[in-house]
Structures are given as C-alpha cells and as structure tokens.
Amino acid sequence: MARLEGEIVDAEADIADLIRDSGDGAGDDQADAGSKTYEREQEMSIVANDRDLLLQTERALARLDNGTYGTCESCANAIGKLRLQAFPKATLCITCKEREDRR
After folding, report:
1. Residues 89, 5: contact at Cβ < 8 Å?
2. Count of domains for the chain
3. N or C: less crowded end of the chain, CB within 10 Å?
4. Are 55 and 41 in contact (CB under 8 A)?
5. Are residues 79 and 100 in the same domain?
6. What keywords does the record list, in alphabetical order (predicted)?
7. Dist. CA 23–CA 37, nearest whole Å
8. Residues near 40 by beta carbon (within 8 Å), at least 6 away in sequence
9. pLDDT range class, residue 29, cuts 50, 70, 90
10. H or E stretch including 44?
C-alpha cells in the first residue's frame, strides 16, 4: 500500500512539474514555435500517461480498502502474486488480460 501511495505522490509531482515548466512561447520564430508545439504535445502525452497511472493507483488503493484487491474484475479468480508484484495496479488475471489484448 505504501508503494502505491508513493506512486500517487510521484505522479502528482510529475504532472505539476510538467504544467509549471510549460512555456507560452511568446517571441519565438516559426521554427521555434514548431519545436515548442512538438515539445508541448510530448509533455501533454506524458501528463495524460501520468494521470492514467495515478487513476490506476488510486483504483488499486480503493480495491485494497474494499477487499477486492487481487481478484480479477472479469472472472473473479485470484490474480497471480507474481503479476501483482510486477504490476500492483492489475485488475485482470493473466488469462483475462491476454483475452482483452487480443480484441
């Protein structure tokens, strides 16, 4: 649980840093503006990814609180210990995750 809470703090800090560091690009020429636009898109992609990870972590903590952590949301079987160690935010067992990925 401490690991998940640490991930929340880290993700929130990353998002805040990216938002703070994004400039407005005033006074740039066209080449600089293009570079800034590309960098901004990259930063927004990172922010979206961090936000998704943050939501997954918060969801895992909620599952811990309500006693459903470690149970597959699709088939209700136990999620393997090694899978949870590798990806603590997992909500699906390996079988269900593979089935979902094939779709």
Report:
1. no
2. 2
3. C
4. no
5. yes
6. Metal-binding, Zinc, Zinc-finger
7. 10
8. 22
9. low
10. helix 30-66
